[in-house]
């Protein structure tokens, strides 16, 4: 295959106003036969409106999944199995392994087929940074969501701190290979004639071929003095992730807090002052901030601080996810009290969070009220064995390879 001309950033910049079908409001399903958008009645739970046909009644005699909020905030999924997956950090290989373990992705190597039926899959954030296949993972989850809806299931994503950091232009934790992926993807988008849906949804199926034909550059190419290489990668990434950029608008389709049936899903942790501020309000403000072009506002205060900044924000809090060696007895008791108070205020039975790698795998804290599902599976973190959380009839269960086990010395090798 002939070498393509240098990256054309303008091809991505042309989509900076969220004008394509792929960046329609998060409450509206792509290809929805009714063109319908989920609406809320204004109450906390509200009356849920079905966003898509989802295979009629959802199949198996179950009612269709109903979504309220824009982006989705409250989800009613009667009788569904729920699977929660933790931080993925750009590792497509480990992502596939986790999804296959969860029973929602075909094991066939030449396709990405949803096998979860009516399962509801929730990924709790931090798809970006530390790995080189970020866009491919976003593409995979979007493709699986479209397939799942046709079977009465669904795939939801929750934005984490690394998603908000990239929209802010904070690229400190970007893997060199991820800059290369941005360059290749913008070139592929140009090859697709600027058709965002075609390029984005198919990227996971073609990224490996592009990687083989345009290999990732050696890390030496990213040394500070290699300005040409660095600026090409940064320009490509900035065009995609800047406020109002096409991937920022994709992220804007997803919430920072999601309620599915009686469970809360977020990246860092939901706290009482977040509930008082308003979950749907936080989701909406973060989404608007991501979709708003930087030329629309120069005001730094437009960043939704309560959700995206500070140690006690939704995407940064570690109150519930710290290990026992990092917490005093007092802080351990406090976290349990706060978790109970928060869950009671939203009428939920449990919370699922990511953000803090758990060296002993998926586990529960705060007297069983909070489940921590970030196991550091990415090669850019701990490269640990994938584990996921399954919730059936409000009963959580950890899914993992039965042969997998850790000892303390093995964990030390990763740190």
UniProtKB/TrEMBL annotation:
Transmembrane residue ranges: none
Domain Calcineurin-like phosphoesterase: start-end pairs: 81-265
SUPFAM superfamilies listed in its UniProt record: Metallo-dependent phosphatases
Coiled-coil residue spans: none
Any one GO molecular-function label of the UniProt entry: hydrolase activity
Top-level lineage group: Eukaryota
A Pfam family this chain is assigned to: Metallophos
Record's protein name: Calcineurin-like phosphoesterase domain-containing protein
Gene behind this protein: LOC102702785
